[in-house]
Amino acid sequence: MTHLFGVLSTATSALLTQQRAINVTGNNIANVNTPGYSRQRLNLETGMPTQTGLGMMSYGVTSTDVERVYDRFLGVQLNNENANLGRWEAQKGMLDRVEVVFDESGGYGLNQALSDFWNSWQDLSLKPEGQTERAVVAATSQGLADAIRQKYGELEQVQKDIDIAVRDGVETVNRLAAQIADLNQKIARTEIGGTNANDYRDRRDLVLKQLSEMIDITSFEDATGQAVVSVGAGRPLVESGNTWQLSAQTNADGHTDIFWPDVDGGLVNLSGEIRGGRIGGWLQTRDAKIAGYQSDLDALAQGLMSEVNTLHAAGYGLDGTTNTDLFTGSGAVDMQINPAVLADLNLIAASAPPGAYGNADQAIAINALRTGLTMNGGTSTFDAAANALVSQVGYDVQAAKANASHQADMATYLENYRESVSGVSLDEEMVNLVKFEAAYNAAAKMVSMADEMLDSLMNMMR
Amino acid sequence: MRITQAMMSNIFVSNLRKQTEAMLQRQEQIATQKRINRPSDDPSGMGRVLAGRSTLATIGQYTDNIKQGKTRLEFTEQTLKLVDDLVQQARRTAQEKSGDGVTAEERALAAEAVKEIYDQVLQLANSKLNDRYLFSGDRTNTAAFTRDAGYNATYNGDAGSCRIPIADNVEVRVDADGRSYFQDAANGGVNIFDQLRDLIAGLENTDVSAGSAQIRATVDPLEEAHVQIMDKRAEAGPKLYRLQATEEHWTNVKNTVQAAIGREEDVDVAQAIIELKNLETAYQSTMAAASRIIQPSLVNVLK
C-alpha cells in the first residue's frame, strides 16, 4: 500500500542515513593522520520490505552498523616484524656506543697503546740504564693498562645504561599490558550489546604494536574478542582484564633481569626467554655482545699480564731487585702498572743476569712477546687479538645496522600494506562526501516534493 | 592497490631519510678524506688498517734502532782507527829506539811519548756513546779499563755485548767486551796495554842492552795488535752493510704498507664527489616529486 506519508518516511530515513554516512566520512577525514586508525564504513541496507499490492517493496534505507576495514591477519605479522625492528634498533643504538669505545680510526686506541708499549721496550733494550727510556716504558705500560681498563669500564657503563633502559622497558610493558586489559574490558562490554567497538579495537591494536616493539609477544583474540597476550615461553601477560606484572630485579652479576610472577607468587627469570623487542635487543647486547667483548679484553689483559710479568719477574732491575711484577690486577677490570715500579723506575727489569747494569736481554725478551703466538690458544699475537676485537665490534655494528635497516624496510612495507587496507584516503572520502551529499540533497528534494504534493492535496479541499 | 596520503608521505619520509643518510656518509668521507671512519664502515678493512699500523709502528722502531746501531758501529770504527794509529806509532817508536846507539835521553823522551800513547789508548778504550761505556760489556756505567802507577791495566767490565733488534726476532750483536779489543790474550791475541807497558819499561830501563831487548820484544806483538784491531774493524763492515740493507728493506716495506693502508682507508675523492652529486640530484628530485604529489587531493579540485 502506498501513500504520501510513506514517501515522507522513506525520505526521512534517507536523510538520516546519508547524514550518518557523512558523519562517518567526516570522522574518517578527521582521523586521516591518527596513528592506528582504521577507516570506518557505514553499512547500509534497504528498509524492512512490506507487502504492497504490487508485491514486496521496501521503504527507505537503514544503516546496520559501522564497520572498521582491516586485515585481521596483518596484525600478528606486523607485531612480529615490529618486535624484530625493536630488537635490532635497540642493538644498533647500544652497539653504536660500544663502537665509539673501540674507535681506532683516529689512530689512538688499543692498537696504538700496544705498539707504543712494545716500542718502548725496544728503546729500553738499546739503553737499558737510561732513565728517560725507563720513564717511557713506565708511561707506555701505564697507558696500555689504562687503555684496557678504561675500555672495560666504558663497556660496563654501557651495560649499566642498558640496565636502566631495561627497567624503564619493564615499566612500559606493564603500563601497556594494563591498557590492553582495560581495552579488553571495554571491548567486551561494548560488543556484548551487539555494536562494534571499532575505536577501542584500533586503540588496542596500536597498544599491541607498541608492546611488540618493546618485547616479543604472542597474541590472539579469544571468543569474546578479548586479546590474550603472552611473553617468553608462553607465559601469560594479559588475559581478558587480568595482567601479570613483570618486575625488574638485579641478578647475581649486578645486572637487571626480568621476572614473571607464577601462580605461587614465585618469580621466573624471563631474561633467557625474551628474544625480540627492544628489551630482547638490549639483553642480547648486554649479555652476549658486550659480555663477549669484555671477556676478549679480559683474555688480552690476562695474557699480557701473565706473559710480561713472568719475564719481568725473572729479570733484574738497575738496583739488582728481582721478582717484580710490571702489572698488577686480576684482569681487564683492574689491570694497572705496579705502583712500586711507577714510584721507582730502577725496578724495571731490563737485565737478565743479576747486577748487569747495561744488560738488555730481558727487555729484548719482553719485546719478543710482540711476535709470540700467545693469544687464542697459541694462534695469534697480542696485536692481532686486539685488532680482531675491534673488527668484531665493527662486524656486530654493521650487522645490527643492516638488520635494523632491513627491519625498518619490512615495517614500512607492512605499515603501507596496512595503510592500503585500513588507511584513510582523502580522495576516496571526498568522493564519498560528494556521493552522500548528493543523496542527502536528493532526499531533501523528495521531502519538499512530498510537501508540495500534500499542499496540492490540501488545496483541492478548498 | 589502494593508495592513501599516509602511504605517500611514509614512503617519501623513509626515502628522504635514506638519501640524507647516504649524503651525510659521503660528506663525512669527503671531509675526512677517509673511507673508513669507524670500524663498522668496513670491519675487515679496519682490521687490515690496524695490522698495517702495527707494522708501521714496528718498522719505525726498527729504523730508529738501525740508526742507533749504525752510529755505534761508526763510532766504534772511528775509535778503533785512532787506537790503531796510536799502536802503530808505538810500534815505530819501538823499532826506532831499540837500537843500541840510541841514547838514554832519547829513550827517556820516547818513554814519555809512549806514556802519552798509553793514556790516550786507555782514554779511547773508555769511550762513551750516549752516556754508555762502549767497551765494558754490560757494565756500561763503569769505565772499561783502569791502570795503576806501574801501567798495569785492569778490565772492569764483563762479557756482555750490545744487541740491536733490527727485525722480528733478528738482531745484530756488537761486541762490547773490551778485552776482545784490547786484551785478547785469552784467544791468542795481544794485550795492547801490557805491550805498551813493556815498551815503557824497556825505554826506561837504565840497563841499555837489557832495555833494547825489552823494546825489541814488543815490536812483533804491536804489529799483531795492529792486525787484531784491523780484524775488529773489519767485523764492523758486514754489520754496517747488514744494517744499511735492512734499513733500505724497511724503507721499501714502509712505503708498501703505507700504500696498502692508503688503498684500504683513503677515499676516492672523485668518486665520492660524483656519488654525492648523484645523491643530491636524487634528493632534489624526490623533494620536487613529493611537492607535486603530496599536495593535491580532491579537496583542491572540488570547489
Give your account of this protein's structure.
The complex is a heterodimer of chains A (462) and B (303). With 462 residues, chain A is α+β, with helices and mostly antiparallel strands. Chain A is built from ten helices and 13 strands. Chain A has helices at residues 4-30, 74-101, 110-126, 131-192, 198-214, 277-314, 339-343, 361-368, 382-422, 426-460; strands at residues 40-46, 49-52, 55-58, 61-68, 217-221, 227-231, 235-239, 242-243, 247-250, 256-261, 267-269, 327-328, 336-337. In chain A, the strands form five sheets. Chain A has a four-stranded antiparallel sheet with strand order 5-6-7-8. Chain A has a three-stranded antiparallel sheet with strand order 9-10-11, with helices on one face. In chain A, a hairpin with a 5-residue loop joins strand 9 and strand 10 (256-261). The longest helix of chain A is centred in the middle third of the chain and has 62 residues, at 131-192. The two termini of chain A are 27 Å apart. By secondary structure, chain B is mainly alpha-helical. Chain B has eight helices and six strands; from the N terminus they run αααββββββααααα. Chain B has helices spanning 5-32, 43-97, 104-125, 178-182, 192-204, 208-265, 269-293, 298-301, and strands spanning 128-129, 132-133, 145-147, 153-155, 161-167, 170-175. Chain B has a two-stranded antiparallel ribbon with strand order 1-2. A two-stranded antiparallel ribbon of chain B has the order 3-4. In chain B, strand 3 (145-147) and strand 4 form a beta hairpin. The radius of gyration of chain B is 39 Å and the shape is rod-shaped. Classes of the chains: A alpha+beta (462), B mainly alpha (303). Chains A and B meet through helix 3, helix 8, helix 9 and helix 10 of A and helix 1, helix 2 and strand 5 of B.
